[in-house]
What does this fold into?
Amino acid sequence: MNLTPVNDPAALFHSLSDASRLRLLRLLRQEELNVQELVRITGLSQPRVSRHLAVLRDQGWLQQRREGTWAWYRAVAPGEAPLGAAFFEQAAAAADGVAEAVADDRTLAALLLERERRHDGFYAGLALKWDSIRNEYEHPDIRLGTVAALVARDLKVLDIGTGTGAMLPVLDGAVGTVVALDHSEAMLSRARILCRSEGLDRVTLCRGMVEHLPFGDGVFDACHCAMALHHVAEPAAAVAEMARVVRPAGGVMLTAFTSHDEDWMRDELAHRWLGFDRDDIEDMLRRAGVAPGGWVERSPLAESAMAGRPPAGGRRPNWPRVFLATGVKESRN
It folds into this structure.
């Protein structure tokens, strides 16, 4: 059994001696949350929550990531916890016994449902203007690079995050059959209109989530995920799902924003992640059994596309750079 070294056992055990810290650890085992959400669930003050989080983080119980002005927390994996997985499970069992556990779970469930409804409402309201927004940040090299990666005309391709179907005319003309998936019914309705108007007979539209793709293992020759990764809670798990549904030696293509600090995209576009670094993306691919291949990165054409037009709402969006990462699923021996 591998144990994480403990420099100060007294401080480690002290970190679990407070009921409020046990509540926070218990919540963060279930979901990644920010300070504001934890304040809402527990009813504790923001300074108090922050102090408890710092104690748990410093003693190795939590992971913290920062994006812009936001800080997100989640419990470490059991095997990465101080004194190993068995001790972590015992600490978690103790946390389950706090008096506020049932109320915390109820409030957490309501918060997560509100998150989901907010995202659904966002997409429903955005569907009618999504094409004009997308044209502000997309680059033709990204679309062409996607098609160039698909060399065989008899491929069965999954297009994840198809949105209003911008990629479907290109894919329909380049490959055999296309399955286009999106979480938003409003977006899919717009994609259906496009398919009918363009006569895209080989495209099948379906609703689903990238974290839980409704397909069997290895049923696609290639998978393209278009600008969806920054919306999901667990990008690495989503990449693993893409790899799962692709056959060995099949292609995986990811389009997303590079890392940035444009906080406005979190509220206005429902982004959970503020872009990704190349190293992070390629690490996700490798862990999913996909050998990284090409990387294309471009600045958006928003500046030229918006030339001579007044900015909406008094300001013009500052779009980050966009990348296309490609990879090949490794064959199992």
User: Anything to note?
Assistant: The domain at 9-99 is CATH 1.10.10.10 (Arc Repressor Mutant, subunit A). The chain has a mean pLDDT of 86. The radius of gyration is 22 Å.
